[in-house]
TrEMBL record:
Polar residues bias (residue ranges): 905-933
Region (Disordered): 899-933
Stated family: Belongs to the glutamate-gated ion channel (TC 1.A.10.1) family.
Species this protein is from: Urochloa decumbens
Identification of the protein by name: Glutamate receptor
Length: 933
């Protein structure tokens, strides 16, 4: 019986199909303008949007026909069909319109109907211009003849995501009608939130036309959840039922956040003077409304608009502009000589024998050309600029952000795709460059549900009075961190006290029930504990839980409350002193350099003092011994030779300062080596431990085992599980070859406690992983973020350190944490002193030899004048000069000065010892003056 009614209904829909319109031509061969152009309008007359749209469309058609500058000589007529809020009826009505040879269809207001009709207009090449279908999926390439003359929900959900991010909420619950309109909008919301590191925690689907009891049941489920931020995206005609049910359930009180899409603003704007009951239901709600900028066109039509309809909204303005959009497109279409003609669809002719009479639907021959004119339209309408971008969307998408309070709406800001959130109208920002003063402005204050002005936290505990189940590891060792207790909480320790102190700083009460995890025989697996949190068996886990990569994939951790990391512990032995311990203060290179520089300084002083100081003269053997004695005696400041020259004293002063520093450093280093007990170990570091075949110990339950196997590729056969500090000590004492271990790898806090009790062991190298300990919570838990802030507060006010000092004693053996480091002093510690000493010696030698060269020049001239040399012996001039220079350098300073004082015309004569010329045969005197003395 149902199939009969359906066939009859479809038959009635097509029996009234209109005939073909003939193409009239004028005498020039150019198609004449038709006397009438028909368009269709498809919407629900008795609906919130329909009541506002119908008079707007009628007014727009009248204005178009009254305007002589457009559609000259052609009348625009509109055929309206009522969809009666039914998808099926809407489809039938749409097919009836298409059978009447309309060149375009306005509507539908329903996205669900639009999805069906798009297939029909694609087949018939008729542009479908919707002023209310906002489903983002309608913009796909599957529907080329769909023209959206309003804003897509893609932009509206972007505005909502910006609001949620602005108030730093992380999770929302979407309440939506389960049809194409609702699903498409929520999908766009999820994508927009993901870009801002937020998400939809739950999607509450309402059946279309759901009864009040169904709505209440769904809201009761929603109220059981943690999030208190609700985004409601439903139909205008039944949307208020959601708020009515929410108010009866107490969900419109303080602590809740309600954000409604533009359906609610359409309902409020369509009410005549504002419905008090409606405003009472929605107090504190944030509402979006499509932004309509003020314009002269809008002001000119305002009086006529108010006289015609009392329930206008943004959709009615979009419908008004949609009529003008079609009119401008048809005008350009006709002006270019295109004819309006229709032809039979071959695909439908094949079904001519069908009782549905589908052959009455005909193709608009030039529909693609009219569609091109639609996309290229550009004019200023009542709703603002009407122009399409390359992605087939209206330009300048923008929304008003409204807050319902009292008996009206208050604008708290704007959102546009161009500028984001702002308190400045988008059209003002579009005409000027953005700057920080306009783009980074907070929204105006909001009155939230419950008449509060403070921003709601956005979430609540979903336990309804039940305390949180907190998992605590039941440790059998290192109980300073967490242990079982007979008190009310059942646990105590460093980690427990930190958690309690952080909880006490939260601005809201948190009730906790600590549940021990483990068998009490050995330390439990912390990875299993974290897994229990991810499975919601525990609401959180506290204790000495290391924050490592594998665990962060399962749960969220708080800020670390103590630094940690893996480090090596190895056995140590005392090094006994030997007979050559006195050589250890300096390295071998240092000793060699010291010997060389001692001899070098002694030689420099001998050169500077030889001519003036009798203590530095004598036979060559004696002079060599003098240089060696003087050099090394300065180490003990026991040199007996005095320096008389200024340059010699200068060099000696610098050298004695260097010797003082060297002696002091040697004494300090030797004292340290002989009095401090040095600990050494056969393990040099992580690399040597990995390359060896020795056994390695690790703590039961720690992540170190997985790290050693997975990251360091150490065979499991080398790993030995250990449970307590006594097990550590016993295994280290036994050694790898005797059933023990060569070293233990464990986390730094455990090692510090172990070394405070067993000083026979030491750490080797540095911490080779960087991590910390934190508290584990389920993914996206807002409590983890709040506790992180509380832990930072504990660290800043010093309470975290106080708790640490209370539970964890100081480590007595931690001074050896750096491992084997040589205490011998190297050359790098003294090269600056040696450089200063060397430069001083070099400077003194340069001054000394410059003075020698000047004296030698004057001395040679005086000798040639007083005692001319007969040219008897023929020897090379260079050898003679070098020999003469060496002989001069060896002379005493006093002898040289005596020669330089004599003049050729003076009365003075040389004395017996030095006045006779060497050519006169005074052999004794010559030898005395030339041999070194």
């Amino acid at each position: 019986m149902g199939s009969v009614h359906l066939a009859a209904l479809l038959l009635c829909a097509f029996v009234f199909a209109t005939g073909t319109t003939a193409d009239n031509q004028n005498g020039t061969g150019i198609p004449a303008r038709p006397a009438e152009v028909r368009i269709g309008a498809l919407f629900t007359f008795d609906s919130v949007i329909g009541k506002a749209v119908r008079p707007a469309v009628e007014l727009a058609v009248a204005h178009v026909n009254a305007d002589p500058s457009i559609l000259r000589g052609t009348k625009l007529s509109v055929l309206m069909q009522d969809t009666n809020c039914s998808g099926f009826v809407g489809t039938i009505e749409a097919l009836q319109l298409l059978a009447k040879d309309v060149v375009a269809v306005l509507g539908p207001q329903s996205s669900a109907v639009a999805h069906v009709i798009c297939h029909a207009v694609n087949e018939l090449h008729v542009p479908l211009i919707s002023f209310a279908a906002t489903d983002p999926t309608l913009s796909s390439l599957e529907y080329p003849y769909f023209v959206r003359a309003t804003q897509s929900d893609y932009y509206q959900m972007g505005a909502i995501a910006s609001i949620i991010s602005q108030y730093q909420w992380k999770q929302v619950i979407a309440i939506y009608v389960d049809d194409d309109y609702g699903r498409g909008g929520v999908m766009a919301l999820g994508d927009a939130l993901a870009k801002r590191k937020c998400k939809i925690a739950y999607k509450a689907k309402l059946p279309p036309g759901a009864a009040n009891t169904t709505v209440e049941d769904i809201l009761m489920q929603v109220n059981e959840m943690e999030s208190r931020v609700y985004v409601i995206h439903v139909n205008p005609d039944s949307g208020l039922n959601v708020f009515r049910a929410a108010k009866s359930l107490g969900m419109m009180n303080s602590g809740y956040v309600w954000i409604a899409t533009d359906w609610l603003s359409a309902v409020i704007d369509s009410s005549v003077y504002g419905n008090p009951d409606m405003m009472e239901l929605t107090q504190g709600v944030l509402v979006l409304r499509q932004h309509v900028p003020d314009s002269d066109i809008q002001k000119a039509l305002l009086s006529k608009w108010n006289n015609l309809t009392r329930n206008g909204n943004a959709y009615s303005m979009r419908a008004y502009d949609s009529v003008w959009l079609v009119a401008h497109a048809v005008e350009r279409f006709l002006s270019e000589g295109n004819a309006i003609s229709f032809s039979a669809d071959p695909n439908l002719v094949a079904a001519k024998g069908s009782s549905l009479q589908l052959d009455s639907l005909r193709i608009f021959n030039n529909g693609n050309k009219l569609l091109e004119k639609v996309w290229s339209v550009n004019f200023s309408g009542v709703s603002g600029p009407v122009q399409f971008s390359v992605d087939r969307s209206l330009i300048y998408p923008a929304y008003d952000i409204l807050n319902i309070g009292g008996t009206g709406l208050r604008t708290i800001g704007y959102w546009s795709n161009f500028s984001g959130l702002s308190v400045v109208a988008p059209e003002n920002l579009n005409s000027s460059a953005l700057n920080s003063s306009t783009n980074n402005v907070q929204l105006h204050s909001v009155i939230w549900p419950g008449q509060i002005s403070e921003k709601p936290r956005g979430w609540e505990f979903s336990y309804h009075g039940k305390p949180m189940r907190i998992g605590v590891p039941l440790r059998t060792s290192y109980k300073e961190f967490v242990m079982q207790d007979d008190g009310p909480d059942g646990v105590k320790g460093f980690a427990v006290d930190v958690f309690k102190a952080a909880i006490s700083l939260l601005p809201y009460p948190v009730s906790c029930n600590f549940v021990l995890f483990g068998d009490g025989l050995k330390n439990p697996s912390y990875s299993d504990l974290v897994q229990k949190v991810s499975e919601n068996y525990f609401d959180a886990a506290i204790g000495d839980i290391a924050i490592v990569t594998n665990r962060t994939r399962l749960v969220d951790f708080t800020q670390p409350y103590i630094e940690s990391g893996l480090i090596i512990v190895a056995p140590a032995k005392e090094v006994e002193s030997n007979a050559w311990a006195f050589l250890k203060p300096f390295t071998f290179q240092m000793w060699c350099v010291l010997g060389v520089i001692f001899l070098f300084v002694g030689a420099v002083v001998w050169v500077l003092e030889h001519r003036t100081n009798t203590e530095f003269r004598g036979p060559p053997r004696q002079q060599i011994m003098t240089v060696c004695w003087f050099s090394f005696s300065t180490m003990f400041f026991a040199h007996r030779e005095n320096t008389v020259s200024a340059l010699g004293r200068f060099v000696l002063l610098i050298w004695l300062f260097v010797v003082l520093i060297i002696n002091s450093s040697y004494t300090a280093s030797l004292t340290s080596l002989l009095t401090v007990q040095e600990l050494t170990s056969g393990i040099q570091g992580l690399d040597s431990l990995i390359s060896s075949s020795s056994a390695i110990g690790y703590q039961v339950g720690s992540f170190s085992r997985n790290y050693l196997v997975d990251e360091l590729n150490i065979p499991e056969s080398r790993l030995v599980p250990l449970n307590s500090p006594s097990d550590y000590a016993r295994a280290l004492e036994q050694g790898s070859g005797n059933g023990g271990v060569a070293a233990i790898i464990d986390e730094l806090p455990y090692v510090e406690i172990f070394l405070s009790k067993y000083c026979k062991f030491k750490t080797v190298g540095q911490v080779f992983t960087k991590s910390g300990w934190g508290f584990a919570f389920p993914r996206d838990s807002p409590l983890a973020e709040d506790l992180s802030t509380a832990i930072l507060t504990l660290s800043e006010n010093g309470n975290l350190q106080r708790i640490h000092d209370e539970w964890l004693s100081g480590t007595e053996c931690s001074a050896d944490n750096n491992g084997d480091v040589s205490n011998s002093l190297s050359l790098s510690s003294f090269w600056g002193l040696f450089l200063i000493c060397g430069l001083a010696c070099l400077l003194a030698l340069v001054i000394f030899f410059l003075r020698i060269f000047c004296q030698y020049s004057r001395y040679s001239s005086e000798v040639e004048v007083q005692f001319p040399e007969p040219q008897i012996v023929n020897r090379p001039a260079r050898l003679t000069t070098i020999k003469s220079l060496i002989s001069f350098v060896d002379k005493k300073e006093e002898e040289v000065k005596n020669v330089l004082k004599k003049r050729p015309n003076g009365s003075q004569h040389p004395s017996i010892g030095d006045s006779q010329h060497p050519s006169m045969g005074n052999t004794a005197t010559e030898e005395q003056s030339t041999l070194p003395t």
